[in-house]
């Protein structure tokens, strides 16, 4: 059962849905792995991962958006997170993503980010989004650029330190289908 009012979004073989209690274990494993978690703020203890998980639930209740759990439709297994993030101190709403280790290399983050961005533009009325990426996170930079985002500036993130801000194309700048072919 979802812990938020998040809608369920379909994206081909993916489903984006609100967080559920069963999502905590794979998230805690992700946060405990320093090689994987550094781009999302660094390795965390299990209690820190719990606070992040609870913060995301609260974010949904406060803003009406947050990180979706990316779920594979076949087998209903959590594959990662993707959504819109804008906590206190953030420069503006951000489109973010992470994929759990067993699911890397399948285009999951790309398809999920396209779907989450389209939802933010269509359902939330956003006209722009950013992706805030730590310097050295080449894979996230490549994905942001594949999504059409362009480097805008470097700034001091209130929790992560130096961060690069990439600007996504707005709804008017996207192709007529908004890139939806990736999960149609």
Features:
5-stranded antiparallel beta sheet, alpha+beta, globular, Aminopeptidase, 184 residues, 3-stranded antiparallel beta sheet, 30% helix, single chain, disordered C terminus, 8 strands
Walk me through the structure.
With 184 residues, this protein is an alpha+beta fold. Helix content is 30%, strand content 25%. The protein has helices at residues 24-32, 34-37, 46-63, 108-122, 138-146, and strands at 9-11, 14-17, 67-72, 78-85, 94-99, 130-133, 150-157, 161-167. The chain has a 5-stranded antiparallel β-sheet. A 3-stranded antiparallel β-sheet has the order 6-8-7, with helices on one face. Helix 1 packs across helix 3. The model is unreliable at 180-184 (pLDDT under 50).
Percent of residues in helical segments? Answer: 25-40%
Number of spatially distinct domains: 1
Task: List the secondary-structure elements in sequence, H or E.
Answer: EEHHHEEEHEHEE
In round numbers, the mean pLDDT is 92
- Outline: globular
Strand content: 25-35%
Task: Assign the CATH superfamily.
Answer: Gcn5-related N-acetyltransferase (GNAT)
Strand order of the largest sheet: 1-2-3-4-5
Could you name the CATH topology? Aminopeptidase
Q: pLDDT under 50 segments (min length 5)?
A: 180-184
What is the tally of helical segments? Answer: 5
Question: Judging by the overall fold, what is the CATH architecture?
Answer: 3-Layer(aba) Sandwich
């Amino acid at each position: 059962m979802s812990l938020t009012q998040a809608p369920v979004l379909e994206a081909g073989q993916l489903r984006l849905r609100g967080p559920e209690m069963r999502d905590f274990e794979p998230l805690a494993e992700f946060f405990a792995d320093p090689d994987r978690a550094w781009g999302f703020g660094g390795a965390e203890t299990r209690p820190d991962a719990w606070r992040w998980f609870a913060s995301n639930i609260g974010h949904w209740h406060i803003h009406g958006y947050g990180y979706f759990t990316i779920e594979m439709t076949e087998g209903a297994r959590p594959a990662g997170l993707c959504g819109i993030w804008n906590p206190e101190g953030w420069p503006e709403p951000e489109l973010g993503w992470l994929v759990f280790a067993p699911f890397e290399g399948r285009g999951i983050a790309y398809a999920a980010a396209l779907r989450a961005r389209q939802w933010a533009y269509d359902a939330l009325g956003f006209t722009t989004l950013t992706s805030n990426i730590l310097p050295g996170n080449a894979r996230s930079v490549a994905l942001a650029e594949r999504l059409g985002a362009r480097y805008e500036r470097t700034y001091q993130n209130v929790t992560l330190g130096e961060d690069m801000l990439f600007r996504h194309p707005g709804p008017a700048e996207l192709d007529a289908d908004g890139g939806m072919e990736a999960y149609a």
